[in-house]
Specification:
The protein is mainly alpha-helical. It is built from four helices and no strands. The longest helix has 37 residues.
């Protein structure tokens, strides 16, 4: 149990570091909060809540993983290395792909409800 609690504290510290070092992480947290507020205001269904929560968690998790890969690459080489650049670009690309898909799904969930609320 002690190692579980210790691991939990390390994970929380990792999230805190993501917040402190990652401008994109903070932006994505803001987008996630907006999405959750929209869920409340637009009275979305249970399955829509689940989708929004999974997508928000996925984007934030990928962004944290991307930051860790970038930090690891910086430890390996401080010089401009085309191979390191490729690794960083691939990692950032994974976040972009998931973020775009999350945005499209968010639009599919929220736009019809917003239109209905405004009419």
């Amino acid at each position: 149990m002690k190692t579980f609690i210790s691991g939990l504290f390390h994970a929380i510290e990792g999230i805190s570091r993501s917040w402190n070092i990652g401008r994109n992480f903070r932006i994505q947290v803001g987008c996630g909060v907006v999405s959750l507020v929209l869920c409340v205001l637009l009275n979305v269904q249970g399955w829509e809540w689940i989708v929004v929560l999974i997508l928000t968690g996925g984007v934030l998790s990928l962004e944290t993983l991307n930051s860790s890969i970038e930090k690891l690459c910086d430890l390996i080489s401080v010089d401009r290395d085309p191979k390191i650049k490729t690794i960083k670009d691939l990692s950032a690309g994974s976040v972009l792909i998931f973020s775009v898909i999350a945005m499209v799904i968010g639009c599919l969930i929220f736009i019809p409800k917003i239109i209905l609320a405004l009419s």
